Amino acid sequence: MSTGTGIRDVSLIESKEFLQSVYNALPCGIGIYSVSENPQILFLNSGYLKIYGYEGGHDYSEYDLYTNNDFFVDVLPEERAIVEAAIKKRLSGNSPVTYEVKALCRDGSIRFTKCTLDMINLPNDERYLQEVIVDITEEKILERSKELNKYSKSLMAVFDRICEVSLSSNTIMPVSTKYPGKERLNTVTNCQVYFEHQSQNYVHPEDRHTFLHFTDFNNIRDTVAQNGYAYCECRLKDVVDGEYIYSAITILPVEDDYYLYCVMNIDSRIKQTVLEEENKYLQEKAERDSLTSLLNRAATEDAVEFYLSKCGPESRCAMMVLDIDDFKAINDTYGHLQGDQLLISISDILRHHTRKNDVVGRFGGDEFIVFITDTQNDEIVIKKIHDFATEIRGLSETLNIDMPVSVSFGVTLTSRENTSFGEMFYMADKALYMAKRSGKDRYAIL
Fold this sequence. Notes:
alpha+beta; Beta-Lactamase; Alpha-Beta Plaits; 3 domains; 6-stranded antiparallel β-sheet; 16 strands; rod-shaped
């Protein structure tokens, strides 16, 4: 692209101080260029420089440094064809050409501009292109906001902030917000630049990767095409107090390649959920045996009592009390670490062969309780005992214990007499004593 010599032709305007002062006093942008399909910039008034965000519009120095006097540098690449068509039309015709185009400002923001391109013919037969540029960004935002009002009115009942994103033109603009004074975006800007700026300055460091992946253009298109929307939760910094708040970002399709970028404060909800999870964890920790993670004695008793209070008279349940045979001898021979591992392994077996609604607990020492809910008949209970016993015997080889590993079972079933934990435990413990006396590694039912 030709950019000329870089030395402006000051004879046209700048040598005529009166015209220069008039042009600079105008509220619009004025540009004068050489007559070419790739024009050279000859003069820009202060209004032009202000629109594009250069040094308050006083001189060309910053503009030249940034643009290298490139005529098309201020135009979004995807809109360059509009400007090229306008230049060709004016060069081949006799009338001014008016067009609208999105302009790319120095800070990456986008301005909507309405441009009128005409020819200046001087008495000495010199000809120049003159462009009058009016910033119509606020009008466009208002116009687009009215168009989106049918969406935003209902959505603002849910979300705190809504912006419109155009992926094809790489722009993002504000639509509605509940907190105007806290809004970080108040004009049209470059969407990718905005997301990168958000990531570096407002997204919590631990959430940046998630946010950048979520706002990747291809990911937005693919996710919305697949799910009908895109959703992400991350922590965003509050512009007033600098605190990070949990926020939910939802991207909804509007039309073509336009989307609504909706942000909602979910800080209180997330923190309440975290608090509930922490309380649940602490409660479960208080109810669990620290070695085996089974229910402890008190929690086991409470769980069984709760179930018995809810089941009807026709419900049939079984309680097993298990005791490891010769556990003291194993501990004395192989040490407490191996003894602990045996307790953990037996706990895993009990968990594996019971259902979610059954109750399994460590009652203390080497004694366990298994409460089987809704058993249809005694055969089911007996099969369960055999499953437990067979797998527990195999721990002798698994744990390299050179002596038999077994358990004895005392079992009782619910009846009119056994309607509480205490009553069932008394009967099951009595049955366990009978099993132990009859030779261990066996069961007894009362």
